[in-house]
Design brief:
Layout: H1 2-9, E1 14-21, H2 26-44, E2 52-57, E3 76-83, E4 86-94, H3 101-110
Parallel strand pairs: 1-2
Antiparallel strand pairs: 1-3, 3-4
């Protein structure tokens, strides 16, 4: 609920999240479904959708189809602030959240 309130108070700002995951990776199997449920809840329960959520599947060498980019660990959740059509990386959650994925993303958005 707190994240919905923070996002609502910043109506001129949107947030994108890029998720890099490996279907073979235990951490991805744990955190990607939880993140997707969180994103769904934000959109449908609180009417505060993220601007874009992009999922990138990686192979075991962490190739994800983006030339020149390879995440060091999966899953990696990269959070961007989008304001005046400018996309700025404001934080990321790499491999495992410090608390819970929802709280880590809240802290990234709240503190940026």
């Amino acid at each position: 609920v707190e994240l919905a309130q923070v996002m609502a108070s910043r109506s001129d700002t949107q947030y994108d999240i890029d998720v890099f995951f490996g279907a073979w990776c235990g951490d991805s199997q744990t955190w990607l479904p939880r993140f997707m449920m969180f994103a769904y809840t934000m959109e449908y329960k609180y009417q505060q959708p993220f601007n874009n959520v992009r999922l990138y599947g990686c192979d075991r060498e962490k190739n994800c189809g983006i030339e020149g980019f390879k995440p060091e660990f999966v899953p990696t959740f990269m959070v961007y602030r989008v304001k005046n059509n400018e996309r700025t990386l404001i934080g990321s959650v790499v491999e495992e959240p410090q608390e819970r994925i929802e709280n880590d993303i809240l802290n990234i958005i709240k503190n940026n």
